[in-house]
Amino acid sequence: MQATNWKRSTAAIVTGTLLGLGAGVILAPQSGAQTRRQMRVLYEEARENLRNHAQDLGLRLNETAKQTRSGFRHWLEEKLLAERHPVNPQRTTVEGLPLVVSGSR
Predict the structure, then answer these.
(1) Could you tell me which of 83, 64, 82, 84 has the C-alpha nearest to residue 72?
(2) Using CA atoms, how far apart are residues 75 and 77, in angstroms rounded to an integer?
């Protein structure tokens, strides 16, 4: 859901930027050299902005993957321990999970 919203937002920003750039070129009351210089600056800024957003997205995806792996590993360890040892529902761990009583069956 969030990925779809992110894609739509990015597409809207890119489309708006291109339309604005096109209208600016058509309606600009300046010389071609000035317009090209301005377009080069805008292009460089857009490229840098896109690079920063891609980097940020990569970092967030990497963090999400780490959290998912950690959560899955924790869940799997709980399941494996629960099969080997009965659970004492009266006592809980720090995370609020039932405490596994080792050695009793």
Answers:
(1) 64
(2) 6
- Asked whether 87 and 101 are in contact (CB, 8 A), the reply is yes
- Decide if 89 contacts 98 (C-beta within 8 A): yes
Tokens 């990569």 — which residue? 58
Q: Determine the 3-state secondary structure of 80 from DSSP.
A: helix
Task: Give how far Cα 11 sits from Cα of 4, 35, 40, 41, Å.
Answer: 10, 25, 21, 21
Q: Looking at residue 105, what is its pLDDT?
A: 45
| Residue-wise pLDDT tens digits, 19-71 | 887 887 777 677 778 878 988 999 999 999 999 999 999 999 999 999 999 99
Tell me, letter by letter, the H, E, C secondary structure of 33-76: HHHHHHHHHHHHHHHHHHHHHHHHHHHHHHHHHHHHHHHHHHHH
Beta bridge partners of 46: none
* Residue in the structure block whose two tokens are 């405490």: 99
What does pTM read for this prediction?
0.44
